[in-house]
Amino acid sequence: AAILRGLYDETLVGNRPRVLELTHEGLAAGLTPETMLFDALIPSLEEVGARFERGDFFVPEMLVAGKAMSGALDVLRPLLAETGARTVGTFLMSTVKGDVHDIGKNLVNIMLEGAGFHVIDLGVQVSPEKVVAGIREHNPDIVGFSAFLTTTMPMFKANINALQKAGLRDQVIVMVGGAPVTQEYADAVGADGYAADAATAVRRAKELLA
Ligand code: B1M
Predict the structure, then answer these.
(1) Could you report the per-residue pLDDT of 40-78, keeping only the tens digit for each?
(2) The ligand 1 atom nearest the CA atom of 48
């Protein structure tokens, strides 16, 4: 419990070296990666967001907290992805143009990999043109878009329009997600699937492929 509390507190203040240390200490003490993620790291970033909304935190605080979380995620990634399951499908993932948030996307990727998906990550601020090129190159089963700002969510529609224009829309399943996204919004832009979190994203991706 002290380690989880420490992970929460040190992520909140963006102490990346200490978060890294505590992540290793947690593993050594037998804590699962899932426990550290869902009971400490993610709640801490939620609190960071809440403080930002209240005006108690500013962008620099958000940035260092994000970096602390990413450091922990790097350590946990191989453990979460360790399943040896055969490839169930190829997933092309990106954060939409104009949006730099990537922690949530990376977490979805890790869980997808853990479930046996082959994940190709195009990164952040990805233009519709790059997505179209990515589909042509990798021939994915599912194309996933993350958006974390109300101002970048409209890029889902722009991407789907670009796929239609390129004649690719019928070849791929489109999934969308990210903090401000809802099922209603996903339906409105014509996506095939939506999920609120990484675990649900994996379940939904498997359902859509079945
Ligand atoms: Co920003 N930011 N940020 N930020 N940031 C949010 C998203 C915000 C909600 C904070 C707040 O006000 N409460 C707010 C958006 C408000 C809105 O539009 N509704 C916000 C803002 C306003 C901004 C800026 C505009 C601030 C500014 O400059 N004034 C700016 C925008 C920059 C840009 O993109 N152009 C900005 C910048 C940043 C940092 C760079 C400082 C940093 C990003 C670091 C990084 O990602 N490398 C940052 C951070 C850290 C946050 C918060 C605090 C944490 C995000 C996070 O990693 N959460 C965030 C507040 C919050 O979320 N509570 C916030 C943890 C992560 C595991 O959850 O990202 O929701 P999440 O991902 C989930 C689900 O969404 C889902 O699964 C994931 C895992 O469970 N999911 C999918 C994600 N993608 C999916 C795809 C799927 C399915 C599910 O299918 C394909």
Answers:
(1) 999 999 999 999 999 999 999 999 999 999 999 999 988
(2) 53
